[in-house]
Amino acid sequence: MLFLTQSAAVYGIDALIVDIEVNLQPVKGEADSSSPVIIVGLPDTAIRESRERIRAAIVNSSFFFPFHKTTINLAPADVRKEGASFDLPIALGILGANGDLGNSETLANVLSIGELSLDGRVRPVRGALSIALRARENNIENLLLPEENATEAAVVQGVNVYPIRDLRQAVEIARGLQSGKGAPVSPLKLDASEMRNSESRYRADFSEVRGQQTAKRALEVASAGGHNILLIGPPGSGKTMLAKRLPTILPQLEFEEALEITKIHSVAGLTGKSGLVTSRPFKSPHHTVSQAGLIGGGSIPKPGEVSLAHLGVLFLDELPEFDRGVLEVLRQPMEDKNVTISRAATSLTFPSNFMLVASMNPCPCGYFGSQRECKCSPIQIQRYIGKISGPLLDRIDIHVDVPAVKFKELRGKDSAAVENSESIRQRVINAREIQLKRLNGDNIYSNSAMSPSQIRKFCALSAESESLLERAMLRQGLSARAHDRILKVARTIADLEASENIEPPHISEAINYRSLDRDYWT
Ligand SMILES: [Zn+2]
Fold this sequence. Notes:
By secondary structure, the chain is α/β, with parallel strands linked by helices.
């Protein structure tokens, strides 16, 4: 007898429907428990090894494993199937073919997924959200999946999500749906509007950071224009503390953005029971991170840190300590806002639209330009800064000094002087709306993404601003490449004030955000 069930596989961050056909064919002679099971349709080793697991799960759930030659076909046949997540649908297919699910030859309108343990319990899988989205797109109404993944899948409205504990329960629900009487339990329901409202309760806030007005302001400008930023300061000056709070002043996530982030985290197996990811990610890989860890990869390709930071912040602490080769691979994802991982048979794409925040000491000992004595020679300092690759530095619009906080500022009791994240965020949102209106026709969304011709078009300077910029560039020895960056950042500063023109104060603030270009470094 032939029986058909449906499951899904995840490629990149999207899912593909996989049809599972099970055929039972009587064997001649005396049947025994070693009757053969064959799996075809490009299965990997994990799937081929699932045969014994599925047999044990079926028997230990008090079902009868058919004494037949069992052929299992996974379709489409030209796509490689990986992992153990087809256990549950294959088991249901075998039981269906054996008549355990009623008289029908298909498990219609049901998509199931899950790994089985020997005793029949169902284990969690990766990518449940993408699978639920695909099920809805294909008009499959019922989804049977491990209970650990249920909340995440139930984010998708219009699909009945049944959290499955073990094979017995899956069979009971499948029987109910097949008979037309309905499942013996009701599907999991989540209130999507409530999820949206519970958005972004960040544990950190800018009001907790004492002093550092210049650095805070620079982070506000960076958020407003989508500019990448480099924080330069001695150890203990609070660079990490500042960087961690950047997501709290970025605009709130839209629901569609939250879905996209959750899909990536789900494919990486990182969502757990939390369901929707509702706050902007902050990823801070250690400087020993590998190339695959940073941009993604592995035998079953998983998203890397650049994709886990999608729509949030990627923080590279101690930038000169990172391997140069590892930093080089950041260029493509930063340029394209997505990263392509090539494999033997296929290539996968993960999104990677993040804001880069990097930090570094001003010199190897860390105290150049601070009150403590710096023991480094000019050559040592030059070599230290030279460790950062030029092309990466070229993508960072803002460099800001983060000096050690003075004792007086740390002890300050004047709470009115410390602004909270929400009020900074409001200014960021307003500035972004202005940019959106100005740039929308040009298909970009923030000042940082302006091309040279767009800079000429949108960053015209008055004669006064022009001569200010010219003098500063000469006096401070600013490089030519600094010129366009100053204009972009000045445009954002003007937008924060809702000023149509770039005025001299905007230009001079932007010039201050080029500390690494000043001639005393080189
Ligand atoms: Zn030093």
